[in-house]
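User: tokens in, sequence out, please.
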């Protein structure tokens, strides 16, 4: 099909674009350039009405789709991290557990609990602090 031919012809360029976009982000163990290209390709190919004026328009649209894949991934990671912080707040603040006890209960390292507890306290201070 035409879309498969287009992907085959432009795959290397799309991987270079994805690689540049990933270099601007924090490294991710669960995301790589191949996955970004493929997810973006799925987004573009699911829009059967989409037409490209020229190659520049195609690459610009593909770039935007890859950026959206990265944004969606970052949002998912943040959402996953929020319940972790919530559990640490429950243990430390509401249950009154020490850092060591919290680490044991949650199956985490003491260092991770200390780092996340500091992050949670900062977030809570900003959220609960006086509004200006």
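Assistant: Sequence out:
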């Amino acid at each position: 099909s035409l879309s498969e031919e287009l992907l085959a012809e432009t795959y290397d360029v799309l991987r270079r674009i994805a690689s540049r976009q990933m270099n601007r982000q924090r490294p991710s163990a669960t995301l790589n350039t191949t996955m970004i290209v493929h997810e973006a390709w799925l987004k573009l190919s699911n829009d059967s009405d989409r037409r490209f004026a020229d190659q520049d328009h195609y690459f610009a649209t593909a770039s935007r789709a890859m950026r959206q894949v990265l944004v969606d991934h970052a949002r998912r990671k943040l959402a996953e991290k929020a319940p972790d912080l919530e559990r640490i707040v429950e243990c430390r603040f509401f249950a009154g557990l020490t850092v060591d006890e919290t680490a044991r209960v949650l199956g985490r390292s003491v260092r991770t609990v200390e780092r996340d507890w500091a992050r949670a306290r900062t977030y809570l201070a900003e959220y609960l602090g006086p509004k200006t």
